[in-house]
Amino acid sequence: MGQRIAMATSPAGTRIGYAVTGSGPPLVYVSGWLSHLELSWALPAERAYYEALADGRTLIRYDKPGCGLSSPASSAPYSMALEIEALRTVITAAKLDRFELMGASLGAAVAATWAADQPSTVSKLVLYGGWAYGLEVASPQIQRHVLGLVQENWGLATDLLADIFAPDADAATRAAFTHYQRESATPETAVAMLEMAYGVDLRPILGQIHAPTLVIHRSRDRAAPLAQGRRLADAIVPARFEEIGGRSHLPYIGDAATLTRTIRRFLGLPARRRGVLPALTARQREVAALIAQGCTNREIGQRLGIAERSAEAHVERIRLRMDFRSRAQIAAWYVATGGPN
């Protein structure tokens, strides 16, 4: 299953990158933390999660302003209004009138805000790992510590956040996710997003949501307390609450199969057979390893004893086989799959 990358421009001039995967009725996905459409597609666990959601649906996801392929907002501070503008830009570009909407983590707050304000556009709503009131997500002391660390030492902060968001990730996936965060946004953008997350207050609007809603939360989520998920469901009259096991906040880490199966059932989709992600030959893995080391095609050829044009052909075959657009995706995939076998 491939993804098509496109760009849209908001009324304020912000360029928003979005990706389209699969076919069928539209499902718009609002991510929570920093995102990068290309690098996320290179992480096998995350890609498998999106492909599971896209089986029977046209999955549309996007990079928020200042993240991944999207440009920073020109002047406006990071806010819910900016988030809603980005979502509206993608919906308009995709020419959608009515669609299913899913938000994860901070994206749940964005999706809930849209559903409350634009009820006629949302046929079904899924909220994963969300919260109703940001001040209750963590103590003020912890919030100040996290914000200060992100601002002062982005490298160390990405390690800490990987531990909070994905405690069940294996070493390779954790290393790839840590790098992924640093490549997705600047520390300034990360701080602004965290400040907005801690400032979320959906309590006044949750009663305005009328779409059939699934609120799903992991029982021991280390980033968003289970009680916050219950609070969302209690305040949305047509909501159903589903608690699943696990402690990782990232939806694709841990028991992702139960999560996607529950979401698909709510959306009226049949059970999905586990897909098989594309793999590389032994020679192609050698080439991928050298790309991860930063080698050019000429250097790859020298290291492997082949012509530069042969090395170039290997790189192109890897891109086609894996549905990648860049060498950075190849490098990220190699790190996420554990490097040398």
UniProtKB/TrEMBL annotation:
One of its GO terms (molecular function) is DNA binding. GO terms for biological process: regulation of DNA-templated transcription. It comes from the Bacteria. InterPro entries: AB_hydrolase, AB_hydrolase_1, AB_hydrolase_fold, Sig_transdc_resp-reg_C-effctor, Tscrpt_reg_LuxR_C, WH-like_DNA-bd_sf. CDD domains: LuxR_C_like. SUPFAM superfamilies: alpha/beta-Hydrolases, C-terminal effector domain of the bipartite response regulators. Residues 273-338 form the HTH luxR-type domain. SMART domains: HTH_LUXR. PANTHER family: BIFUNCTIONAL LIPASE_ADENYLATE CYCLASE LIPJ, HYDROLASE, ALPHA/BETA FOLD FAMILY PROTEIN. This is LuxR family transcriptional regulator. The lineage of its organism: Bacteria, Bacillati, Actinomycetota, Actinomycetes, Micromonosporales.
